[in-house]
Amino acid sequence: FLSLKRHDVLKLARALANNKFLTEFRLQKVELDDEFADTLGKSLSENGSIRIVNLDGNTISGKGIIALFSGLTTNKTVVEVELLEQQAEPLTDEDEEELIELMEENRTITKVGLSLGSTNAIEAITKILTRNQTQTKLYKMQRQSSMD
């Protein structure tokens, strides 16, 4: 993957918008950056099949993380996002506040792997994830009940 040209990597991210078959997207330790995260975020806003996004160990900064989560505000299928061990500038306090606002809008993400600096951000994200987990469980119970 490291041998692909930048144009091809961004083309891959754009192509995911119309993908209907891929459910897990894992590209770890391949030097993906903020531009890729921004493009992927835009694609995920339209994608209806991907459930897991794992971009651990890349070079995505706080700016790219915010761009990715901006796309996830309207996504209804992603349940897990992993962005640990980024080799870039970490999230600033302002980024963390913006991330909390973006996460508030999403109801499907139930697991996030991300390095946060403030206790406030950790507590707020945990609360949002717990809300989403509870809603997911209730939805599954209702579906099961209606099938019986």
- Mean of all residue-level pLDDT scores: 94
Shape: globular
Q: Detail the poorly predicted runs.
A: none
The termini sit apart by: 47 Å
**Which value, in Å, is the CA radius of gyration?**
16 Å
User: Could you describe the largest sheet, including whether it forms a barrel?
Assistant: 4 strands, parallel
SSE topology string: HEHEHEHEH
User: Please, how many helices?
Assistant: 5
Q: What's the helical proportion of residues?
A: 40-55%
Query: How many E strands?
Result: 4
Side-by-side strand order of the widest sheet = 1-2-3-4
Strand content: 5-15%
Coarse structural class: alpha/beta
What does this structure look like?
- The protein is α/β, with parallel strands linked by helices.
- The chain is 50% helix and 8% strand.
- It has helices spanning 6-15, 34-44, 62-72, 93-105, 119-147; strands spanning 24-26, 52-54, 80-82, 111-113.
- It has a 4-stranded parallel sheet with strand order 1-2-3-4, with no helix packed on it.
- The protein is globular.
- The model has no long low-confidence stretch (mean pLDDT 94).
In short:
The chain is an alpha/beta fold and 148 residues long. Helix content is 50%, strand content 8%.
Topology:
Elements: H1 6-15, E1 24-26, H2 34-44, E2 52-54, H3 62-72, E3 80-82, H4 93-105, E4 111-113, H5 119-147
Parallel strand pairs: 1-2, 2-3, 3-4
Helix pairs in contact: 1-2, 2-3, 3-4, 4-5
Based on the model shown, name its key terms.
globular; 148 residues; alpha/beta; 50% helix; 4 strands; 5 helices
